[in-house]
Design goal:
Elements lengths: L1 E6 L4 E9 L5 E10 L1 H4 L7 H23 L8 E7 L3 H18 L3 E5 H7 L1 H4 L6 E6 L4 E8 L2 E7 L5 H11 L6 H9 L24 H13 L5 H33 L6 E4 L6 H14 L3 E2 L3 H4 L3 H13 L29
Parallel strand pairs: 1-4, 4-5, 6-9, 9-10
Antiparallel strand pairs: 1-2, 2-3, 6-7, 7-8
Helix pairs in contact: 2-3, 4-12, 6-7, 6-8, 6-9, 7-9, 8-9, 9-10
Bound molecules: 5'-O-[(R)-(carboxyoxy)(hydroxy)phosphoryl]adenosine and zinc ion.
Length: about 350
């Protein structure tokens, strides 16, 4: 089984081909990603119109390149998967229409993939991991703790009531004059900083639900920075280190509660998976490793290239669905919001 995956929900245009191994798991035959970071950097964040236009300009060439790398023609595919949401709708439409066109021309099945489901399942591409497992999904747009019970079967145990974790990194970087995207810049600056210099809040710590709140932490960081302005390099380093230490504490606490809820509602977890761009953060990975060691569970952290937005995760989610006969009609619509767990209301901030 070989499936093409197309990703255009945010600021990455990506196309990949993944093959299902007979013994399970996936083999990535091609994985093309074109980041738009340079186009958005002057604005300090993703500009939806710029993103949609950039996707339109490049997606066909990326698909062609992925097929070439995989040494396949479109008609050799077994299915065409495209992210159909949630995300910036202009971009989502571009990728989904491209997928529909290829599916129509080749007569191959279309799989309209939920971008969040792709993040949730990609760990199973890299290694055998049975359901159910606990997932921390943390990116620029999403922050959720989920019980992954099966394909299309999720319980959302916690979410953010305001900013996503990656968004908090990005906004903190911006207010400290660091480059975009902020996560890597804050992490780099934090390396030389004193994490104890500023006593920043740990929002939600100790709460019995597994929700996050990040905007107060970001504001507290701003107030601490303003109090000692003008900032020298070591001040910025200390602020970043203090901010990151607060985020780490919050994640550890929220995951502890998430695992408790998982055990109450679902049962025994087979592991803990981390996905989304924030999973690139070394301090956060270390904290999760500590948490997993205490909980006696394996930590499955896919390679960073599969944690940030990519086409292979869309292709893999397509394979997981196609194997189960879950294919879509060509009339399927792009969705700006698409919660993984329909049992819960839309997140307070409208984030999936
Ligand atoms: O998953 P992703 O590539 O795109 C989506 O948002 O869907 O995640 C990007 C986010 C950005 O907010 C970025 O600042 C954050 O992930 N990020 C990090 C790190 N690398 C990327 N956050 C903290 N530490 C990092 N090293
Ligand atoms: Zn994503």
């Amino acid at each position: 089984m070989r499936v093409l995956g197309i990703e255009t929900t945010c600021d990455e245009t990506a196309a990949a081909v993944v093959r299902l191994r007979p013994e399970g798991g996936g083999e990535i035959l091609a994985d093309e990603v074109m980041s738009q970071i340079a186009a958005h950097a002057p604005f300090g964040g993703v500009v939806p119109e710029i993103a949609a236009r950039a996707h339109v300009e490049i997606v066909d060439a990326l698909v062609a390149r992925a097929l070439r790398r995989a040494n396949l023609r479109a008609r050799d595919l077994d299915g065409v998967a495209a992210a159909a949401g949630p995300g910036l709708i202009g971009g989502v439409v571009v990728g989904l229409m491209t997928g529909k066109g290829i599916a129509l021309a080749t007569g191959k099945p279309l799989i309209a993939v939920n971008h969040l489901e792709a993040h949730a399942l990609v760990a199973r591409l890299t290694r055998p991991l049975p359901f159910p497992y606990l997932l921390l999904l943390a990116s620029g747009g999403h922050t959720q703790i989920l019980a992954v019970k099966g394909v299309g079967d999720y319980d959302r145990l916690g979410t953010t009531v305001d900013d996503a974790i990656g968004e908090a990194f990005d906004k903190t970087a911006k207010l400290l004059g660091l480059s975009y995207p902020g996560g890597p810049a804050v992490e780099a600056a934090a390396k030389d900083g004193d994490p104890t210099r500023f006593a920043l809040p740990r929002p939600m710590l100790g709460r019995p639900n597994a929700d996050f709140s990040l905007s107060g932490l970001k504001t507290a960081t701003r107030i601490a920075a303003q109090a000692i302005a003008p900032l020298k390099a070591h001040d910025v380093a200390d602020l970043c280190a203090s901010f990151q230490a607060a985020v780490v504490d919050v994640i550890e606490d929220r995951m502890r509660v998430g695992l408790r809820l998982f055990r109450q509602r679902v049962g025994v977890a087979h592991g803990v998976v981390v996905a989304g761009g924030v999973a690139a953060n070394g301090a956060i990975r270390e904290a999760l490793a500590r948490f997993c060691a205490q909980a006696g569970l394996p930590l499955v952290a896919p390679p960073i290239s599969l944690c940030t937005d990519n086409g292979a995760m869309i292709a893999w989610a397509g394979i997981e669905r196609l194997r189960r006969g879950l294919v879509d009609d060509l009339s399927v619509a792009a969705r700006p919001r698409w919660p993984l767990d329909p049992k819960v209301e839309r997140a307070p901030h409208g984030k999936a």
